[in-house]
Amino acid sequence: MAALGSAVGPRVAPARAGQICRRAVIMPAGRTRVVVRAELKRPEYIPNRIDDPNYVRIFDTTLRDGEQSPGATLTSKEKLDIARQLAKLGVDIIEAGFPVASPDDFEAVRTIAMEVGNDVAPDGYVPVICGLSRTKPQDLERAWEAVRHAKRPRVHTFIATSEIHMQYKLRMTPDEVVESAVTAVKHLRSLGCNDIEFSPEDAGRSDPVFLYRILGEVIKAGATTLNIPDTTGWNLPHEFGGLIAAIRKNTPGAENVIISTHCQNDLGLATANSLAGAMNGARQIECTINGIGERAGNASLEEVVLAIKLRGEAQMNGLRTGIRPVHIYPTSKMVSDYSGMIVQPHKAIVGANAFAHESGIHQDGMLKNRETYEIMTPESIGLPRQEQDRGIVLGKHSGRNALNSRLRSLGYELSQSELDDVFKRFKALADKKKGISDEDILALMSDELHQPKVIWELLDLQVVCGTMGMPTATVQMKGPDGIARIGVGVGTGPVDAAYKAIDSLVRVEAELSDYSVSSVTQGIEALAHTRVMIRPAGKMSDAGYSEHAALGSVQRQFSGSGANEDIVVASARAYISALNKMIGWMSVVVKVAPRTKPAVGAGLSSGASLASVDNGQAPASSQLTAAST
């Protein structure tokens, strides 16, 4: 068995000659120097081999496993936006979804395959577009139909191999499991798919001898990548590294395929296990942006990539990836905004505190030399320091060029119409707040651009509340038919009243499962940033279910966010954002367009109110139901 730090690679051809390039390196004091070094090109993509023994493929499953996080449902537009950003980041494979889950999932994967999967860069790079499938024939055919339009399509099929899964979940014998896996791979071959990934689910708790057997059989059937999942996050790094080494040594034909890792984070070891796998010969690592995913999440792409970038040469025998780290932070922000999954402040690489220094001793060291306490710079992941803004202070007298310059420094390239939308919000905020920080700009960006397709739009909102009477809200909204309407609601507090007023117009039954509000910056003038999570309720609740790769039929949840200097307005924008996302998804699934002309004077049927929200508490489960349509 190979040692943990041996960094043994698969038996492949020698690395290709490097390409000489000039690179400006940011020095601790803000100066730059130019260094000349050899930078290897990304190897030509061949499904079952890599012509560089040190190259590790990055397989991003944010759009599939990441979206399985509760409340992280993404619309087709959001998935396409994220896929484009992942291509900009340089991931080798994008697992775009589970096509059989729902019509919307299928269309999203198909669109990504046709657009992102055919957008070839000048250097020849184009990501592989992958779809997940169970071993069922209808799943396989649906997945292949979704991805086959890509220049480099792949189907990823799986079946559980641990004793507990085979006995209690599958109710299949080991022989039946092997037959199902082999039949699936052969069926994909017959459809014309030549890039096939196979995963033995729960491999980390499976009998190694059985693993060698089933993996050897799928290799003979035509699989090109073998993914080894630690599905429950059970393994320790030395165990998982040893498992990868043993599979490479004992599986017939392992030298002719790529070995991959997929590690869950239940014990907080997903990144460590992934790196241990790579150091023992795995040459593909499956991960997600911000580490989102089932339960405790997956291996974090940014952690894996930066660990290899910073330590790969010295401690991993030269391992490298093709990722462009400068796009990490904008990608992390987009995924957080779209999914509703907040990044914890102390999250490695992309957390708000990752480059913050409060200790006096640390601050003293940083002032003398940044390398005393920073092993990487925020600029290297696309996050400029505010003190490097060349003296430009943004405020109410700032113009479009100044705002656009700051946005570009933060990693955003906007069209003229997008810039106009953000600039309007920027000027409105600048009239009420003296200094506009990067955090304010990012919040406005999220609220204007990182939003689902607009079906209902908030035009105006007014609330009356206090100790003298019932809180009342009046909203003016523009519906999908372009007509502006006014709705009124009475509630236990201003947010509850605003939500009931919105319900009176939208008339879609939804259950509020989570509500949170936070301050973007410090001070009384700070922007409020609100996030909500809802799920279909009432007559539409049955249509809110889709197929989950491992759990079967599950109900979808939809998140929304909003930012404004007024907490009630921010809350309303967040709720409307979540409703737009849910209506858009439901209209595809149910094939029923949302109602655009509610009956005048229709009554409301509401369950538990938002009293806890208006008292400063997030409800565990508040019911927001509008009249039946």
Model description:
The protein folds into three domains: about 55-340, TIM Barrel; about 360-445, no CATH class; about 455-545 and about 555-590, Double Stranded RNA Binding Domain (2-Layer Sandwich), CATH 3.30.160. Helix 1 packs antiparallel against helix 10 (about 330-340) and helix 3 (about 135-145) runs parallel beside helix 5. The chain contains 17 helices and 19 strands. The longest helix is centred in the C-terminal third of the chain and has 24 residues, at about 565-590. The termini are far apart. The protein has helices spanning about 75-90, 105-115, 135-145, 165-170, 175-190, 210-220, 235-250, 270-280, 300-315, 330-340, 360-370, 400-410, 415-430, 440-450, 495-505, 565-590, 610-615, and strands at about 20-25, 30-40, 55-60, 95, 130-135, 155-160, 195-200, 225-230, 260-265, 285, 455-465, 470-480, 485-490, 510-520, 530-535, 545-550, 550-555, 560-565, 620-625. Strands 3-4-5-6-7-8-9-10 form an eight-stranded parallel barrel, surrounded by nine helices. The protein is an alpha/beta fold and about 625 residues long.
Task: Give the assembly state of these chains.
Answer: single chain
Number of H- or I-type helical stretches: 17
Count the beta strands: 19
Largest sheet: 8 strands, parallel, barrel
Q: Tell me the radius of gyration.
A: 26 Å
Judging from the principal axes of the Cα atoms, what is the shape? globular
User: What is the typical, i.e. mean, pLDDT?
Assistant: 84
Percentage of residues in strands: 15-25%
